[in-house]
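Slide 14.
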Amino acid sequence: MPRRQTNHPLLRALGAHIRNVRLDRRMSLTDLADASGVTKGALSSIENGRVNMTITTCVKIAVGLGLRVEDMIPGGLEVSPRPPPS
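Slide 15: predicted structure.
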C-alpha cells in the first residue's frame, strides 16, 4: 500500500514517468489498474507524486506497463546511495 509523502522531487519525477509511459501505451488509469492490480486512486496519487509507493506496488505497476523494474526510474534521474557514515 502506498504511504503518504509530500512534495518530494523523486516522487514527482517517478509519477510523471509512470504517467508518460502509460499515456505512450494509450492506457487509461482503468487499463493500468486492471493490468497491475493497483487501484485507480492509488495510481492517480502515485502519478501525481503524492505518495511513496512500496516496492511491491512498483513491481505491479512495472508488470502492468510491460516494463522491467529498472525501467521505472526515469532517464536522467540520478539515484545514488548515501555514502557510509565516517
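Speaker note: Strands lie at 3-4, 51-52.
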